[in-house]
Structures are given as structure tokens and as C-alpha cells.
Amino acid sequence: MNSEVRVHGRDFTAYRIGGAIAAVLLAILLGWQIWEIFDGDNRTVPEVRWGVAALDGEATAGDQSGLLAHEVLRARTRLQDERYRSGPAPASDAPDFATGAAQWLTNAPMERGAGRDLTRGWARPGSDTLELLRGSERVAGISSLPYVGAEVFERPFGRDWRLGIADFATHLGALAILGFSLLLALVLALRGRVPIAKGRSGRTVKRFGFLERANHWMTALSFIGLALTGLVIAYGDTVIRPFSEPLLGDLGWLATWGHVLFFPPFALGILFMILRWTWGNLPGRYDARWLARGGGFFSDSPDNPPARKFNAGQKLIFWSAALGGVIMVVSGVTLMFPFYWLDIEGMSWAMLTHAVIAVLLIAIFIGHIYIGTVGMQGAIEAMWGGRVDRNWAEEHHELWLAEIEGRTPTQERSG
Amino acid sequence: MARLKFLCDSDRCIECNACATVCKNEHEVPWGMVRRRVVTLNDGEADEKSIAISCMHCTDAPCVAVCPVSTLYQTDLGIVLHDKDTCIGCGYCYYACPFGAPQFPRATLFGSRGTMDKCTYCAGGPEENGSEVEFEKYGRNRIAEGKLPLCAEVCSTRALLAGDGETIGEIYRERVVKRGYGSGAWGWSTAYYPEERP
Question: What are phi and psi of A131, to 5 degrees?
Fold first, then answer.
């Protein structure tokens, strides 16, 4: 075999500059995400304060108006006291009515950061309150109402679920997506593209048929649609809300419906992929060697580890799509029909699974998109036109090329 | 500063469902949704207890944390409110809620189940306090009138207490001392003191 290298990965200067720029941007985003984990804003805080209309209209300080609002309600609370303590009873006077006719409580946005101390204070019980507290455990009885879950009084798991979805899944997803993207951008900047080392031969061989390609793109586009709409739901509060709250509402609504609309083509595509490609993606004897040499990814030598139609990397992508896709479809359909076969706890787990697998799949398929487009010279042609350059085939899938050309491989390598 | 809470004295609740009924009536809550319900524990046993439950207006509220479109928000009295104009009906708040408070008009498809509704502590929503449009979306705003939730104020046995947490805690403690027993503030550790492990 001629191992003369004519095209080097580092020669793709424009790609490498693009990769470097992307790496800088992604590093900034990743830094922001890491800061988000530790900035201590994972407690929810009050955003709106109450005041009294009669005072707010005048030049009095907002604080005073707020204190009065709280005082009004505290006085009203006293009306529920036991009669032997508060009267009307022989021993004590009748309580005052809490509000005058002129008082009307108002709402105003709170100053940023003011709510944080409130939440912290609220979470700390006094010793009197501590005596009243019972354990935090699931409590269910019966209810005369015919609704799902009406019989459950308390399920502390809701708080754990919140940690799972609002902290674990979102942070894990952002780290995985941004971190992996940064890694790929760095690879592109430093290593360049994986070249067709011997240059284009000018002759092509057929790799994927029309139906396979059409199905691939249907699945790919619906996956991207599902991913983008899902990301709006998962990260809109962080990324879109600071710019415009109404925009987040509109996009959220679009995302909800879009997410449902992109589901049927995705499910159909995954099903066809499983039927069409499972056989070729069963683990084979070349896979371990291919993986051990990293697929020859970091060398410009055309002497890559041998592979049949699908190498071990492609097999991993296939199984991510197949298994991940099935998990997403099953959990997604479950979420679309609440309580059809799962109760509230089961639904909670379906939602958590859906979220965690989703962000991991997005990260994995960013890798797939990378290697299929900018990451490797000539790779896109396989799925686009269906025909690949013969030299590309020889460098990456020499056993497959030999099969379709009807000959035994030139050299059966050992070790 | 006051911190509004609910406290249901399970030794006094007689499962009359007045709180649930009066809530539905006062706020004209649509069919298929309840903002307050009564749960009976150990029904028919010697230790049977009934207890009224709705949104507890939690500290560090999980629903506010998980809402993807910032529909849910909290006020400085502790009241958790919602904005029906931004809600997308995803149901996250329902999974996160320790008390099953969020309600949806229909139990159907993601996106078609309608916008969430829940107890507002009789405090309306983001619309102008006391306005007609606020009433249509969220029900009566009694807090703006300086009044407390109707479910508690209507309770015939004073089992359900609402208002400033310290004050209702004190009322309850005095009551327990006087009658000699009490099974504590149900749901308070989960709702108000998530970081405490009693």
C-alpha cells in the first residue's frame, strides 16, 4: 500500500482559524456555565413586594408602605385566635378590624438581590416553630375527589425531583454540550481536518442508497428540531429570559408545540434506521483494534485501522441513536399521555430520564455532526450524494471497499 | 415582616370540605380543577385524620425553580403566584410540587392540556389588583383587600389557619397547650423548612 501523504490536516488553515474562534467563544460559555453552578442562586427568591396604595402615592418611603402591608395582614391573622384569648369574651375586648376602607394593597417588583435574604430567613425556623415540625415523608390517604393524585397529601420527592431537573440535568447538559463542543473546536484548531491523505482519486464508489439518505436527513432534521425546542424549554430561563420575558413565553409556546410536531418523523426515522442498519452495526472482530488505535484519528497517515462498512466509532453513534432514540420516544410518549400507565412518581422519573438522556444525546450528536462535516474531508459526501471518493473509502473502510469491489483485502493485518 | 403560611390542625378537621367548596365558588375555578382538597388518612380506623391541603406557598419553592418559562414567582409575603399568559402547560411544576397543587384543565397531550391553575393564597396574579381581568384569570384578590384566604376564614372548626406564620404557629401552640395534645404542623418541614431534618 502506498503510504505517501499528500494532504495534511494542518493545511486546512481556514477551518483551523474557524475552530480557534469557536474554541474561544465556547471557553467563555463554559466558564459562564461553571460560574452558574457556584454562584449560589439555586434557591428561589421573591421577586414582587407588597405595599399599601394610600402610602405609595405620596412621598413616603417604599419600606414603610411595605411594613404597613405586612402589619395589616398580621392583624387580620389575629382574628383567628381562640375566643378565650382574643374575645369577644368577658375577659377581653373585641378585636379591631384589620383594614380600613381606604387601604388597598399593591404589588411592585423587588430590587435585585433583596429576595435572597428573605428566603434565607424563611428557611430558618425559630425554636417555637421547631417543636411543631413533623418528619418529611410521603403521606397518602383517600380523597373524595376523582382526580389522579388527589389522595396524596405530601410527597417530599418533589423537592428531589426539582434538584434533578433544575440542577443536575441542566448543569450536566450544559457541561456536556459546551465541554464536548470546546474539545472538538480545539481539535479542529490544533489538528485541522482529518484529510483524505492520498488526495482525491477522482473515482467514487456508492455508499448509501437514496432511501437510507432520505431517512437519515428526516431523522437528523427532526432531531435538530427536537433538540432546539427542548433546549428552549431547558435553558430558556437562563439564556432568553434576561433579554425578554414575553419572548421567552412565545418561544416556550412554540417550542412546546414544535416538540410534539417533530416527534413523529423522528420516531419513524429511528425505527427505519434500526431495521436497516442494526445488522451492519453488530460488534465485530475489528472493533476493539479500531478503538484501541482511536480510529487513526490523530494521524494523517492513510494507514487507518481496517473497518468494514461501519467502523467502531460509527457503530457507537448508531447504538446511541438506536438506544437513545428508543428511550426518548418511549419516555416522550409517556409524558404526552400523563398517567396512562404511570403514576406521579413514575411520570417524574420518565421526565428526568427524558431530560438527562436528551442532553447527553445532543452532546454525542454534536460529535457526529462535527466528524461528518468540518471534522473529516470527504465524509459529508457519503450522506449527501451517496457516493464517496475511492481513496476516502480505502483509508477509512478498506475491508468494505474490498467487499464491494469483489476481492479479498490486499493485506489481512494481524495485531 | 410577615411570612404567610397555611396550617391545618388535623385534630380539628372534620372533612366538611367547606374550604374546598368555598374556594371553588369564590374564584369560579373551572371544572376539572381544585385548588384545595381534603385528604383523609387511615379512613375508618381509630386514628383517622382529615387534613386540608392546597399549595403551601413553599420556601425555596420547587415549582418556581423548575418552571421553564418563569410563569411562577413569589412575593415578599411568601405567596407563590402564576402568570397564565406565559404558561406552556409542560407540567414540570406538577412533578416538582410536594403537595400536588398545580392543576391542568385537561389530562391530555403535552401542550394541549391548557395552562396551569393553582391556589393563589387569594392574591390574584400579575394583572392589576382587583381588576376584572385578574378575577377572570386568577379569581378574587382578597389579600389586596387586606383579607386572608377564604378557605381558612370560612373554616367552621378553625382547623385551617392562614396568615402570618409566627402568629398562626402561636395560635396553634396555645391551643395544643390548652387541650393537651396536637399532632404538629403537617407538611411544614417539606414546605417551609426544606433544610431542616426534624
Answer: -65, -30
Domain count for chain A: 1
Ramachandran quadrant class, B164 (left: phi over 0; alpha: psi -120 to 50; beta: rest): beta
Whether residue A105 lies inside any domain: the answer is no
Which of A50, A104, A141 shows the shortest C-beta gap to B76?
A: A50
pLDDT tens, position by position, A169-218: 999 999 999 999 999 999 999 999 999 999 999 999 999 999 999 999 99
Q: Which domain holds residue A288?
A: 9-13+161-404
> Each residue of A296-328: pLDDT tens digit?
898 888 888 999 999 999 999 999 999 999 999
Q: What single letter denotes the amino acid at residue B54?
A: S
What sign has the CA pseudo-torsion A379, A381, A383, A386? negative
**Beta partners for B134?**
none
Which CATH number characterizes residue A330's domain? 1.20.950.20
Q: The C-alpha cell of A177 is what?
A: 454540550
Count Cβ atoms below 10 Å from residue A368 Cβ, excluding itself: 20
Contact A159 B197 (CB under 8 A): no
| Nearest CA-CA partner of B77 in A278, A308, A70, A38 | A70
Is B4-191 in CATH node 3.10.105.10?
A: no
Q: Across the interface, which of A79, A130, A245 has its CB nearest the CB of B70?
A: A245
A391 assigned to some structural domain: yes
Spacing of C-alpha A73 from chain mean position: 43
Structural domain includes residue A177? yes
